Amino acid sequence: MTHSDPPARENSRRWLALVFICLAQLMVVLDVTIVNIALPSAQADLGFSDGDRQWVVTAYTLAFGSLLLLGGRIADYTGRKRAFVIGAVGFALASALGGAAGSFGLLLASRALQGVFGALLAPAALSLLSVAFTETRERAKAFGIFGGIAAGGGAIGLLLGGWLTDAFDWRWCMYVNCVIAVLALCGTGLMRDSRPAVRARLDIPGVLLVTAGLVALVYGLSEAESEGWSSGMVIGMLATGGVLLIAFVLVERRTAEPLLPLRVVLDRTRGGAYLAVGFAIIGMLGTLFFLTFHAQVVMGYSPVKAGLAFLPMTLAVAVAAGGIATRLLPKVPPRALMVPGLLIAAGGLAWLTTLEPDTSYVSGPLTGQLIIGFGMGLVMAPAINYATHGVRPQDAGVASGTVNTAQQIGGSIATALLNTLATNATDDYLADRASEIGDPAVLHAGLVEGYTTAFAWASGILVAAALLVGILMNTPRPRPGETTEQSGDAVPAAHLG
């Protein structure tokens, strides 16, 4: 055996571990959209109302979004591999419960439990990746793959959900998680565990404040879709969430062992990465949400055909994240990829504002989603990489939880804000043509008016995000001969300034 064999063997273990870590990430991400396709069938089977339907989605997002910071800190305290295993097993059991649900209440309970265990699994998976890949070029490649899954998993969920619902039953949209979880757990022996030598005391006041604040914020955003932004309940929940989160920041400033050390989010590079992820998800989920309805309602696609229609977006994400971002990330500052990526995605959304009811798939949805997917790939790979830029090993879990929280809040804003804008635009269009509402062509034109309005707003939001990220992130270009490998108190990014 040569002296170089052990490092080579360790290197191959890391890449094999990445496969299983990405499987866990895929499970969490696709579960945001896979159930959307199954909702009509689940509603017919269990007999719940249209008003209750949103709770199947909200139960998951509330639990997941509000507990991510706590899940990340638990992973830091107890060990990332242990948290990964508990999260994956719990997610699988919750999914099995949902698949077997005979009542609406049991389905809701299973979705909430999925969110709870997902909030432990997602940051554990990302922090395992962060501590496994520390060499510059390897880290860039690993995060390119992981970022591509984070960006494209929603589209995969639509395809898989449509196929499972058509070929089998809506319940398999839940059962499939059991299969993925078992596969992910097969790789735990390859993962390098880490935990602090001394466990700090859990910041209970911080846990209560941030959990309650995020619950109020996510719930308020979720209800804004149906109740309207001027609703007293919505305003009250958003205000309550804001007050609680401000109180959380004040407590964290004074606590010796905080749940979220403010140094994690106040770093300009990491802060820019969190903002980029949150804003990028607004564009991504906005695209998936409205193009799904456009494909099925306006273009008449079946669930499976609608899912297949989104495959090009996933491929565009993979090309940009895995083929381009991973090659450039060690050589250029992250904003040199993220700012153009946000602008490219904004251009794709602007393209979709030209949709008409009779626009062909190739000239409309296909072209738009290829541009958006390419832009998102350039954003997500460096953003998720730099979300753990320079953090201390004991903070890797909570830093991972923070980027997942940014994704969740961005997704909630996308659903609530853009759907409200789209609905209002559609209502205004149809109100001006009240005598023609019985004509399907007029209804389709009204729906497209709403979709294109949402695309226009999402495009503007991404342009603003590009400007903000360009100003905020300040990581310099690496100098010739500079090494970025770290061995001490920080987890490096693909290159460090």
TrEMBL record:
Record-annotated Major facilitator superfamily (MFS) profile domain positions: 17-477
Membrane-spanning intervals of the chain: 15-39, 54-71, 83-109, 115-133, 145-164, 170-190, 202-222, 228-251, 272-295, 307-329, 336-354, 366-384, 454-473
Chain positions covered by the region annotation Disordered: 478-497
UniProt subcellular location: Cell membrane
Bilayer topology term: Multi-pass membrane protein
Pfam families assigned to the protein according to its UniProt record, in alphabetical order: MFS_1 (PF07690)
CDD domains tied to this protein: MFS_MMR_MDR_like
Keywords: Antibiotic resistance, Cell membrane, Membrane, Transmembrane, Transmembrane helix, Transport
NCBIfam families the record matches: efflux_EmrB
Protein name, per record: MFS transporter
Species annotation: Streptomyces litchfieldiae
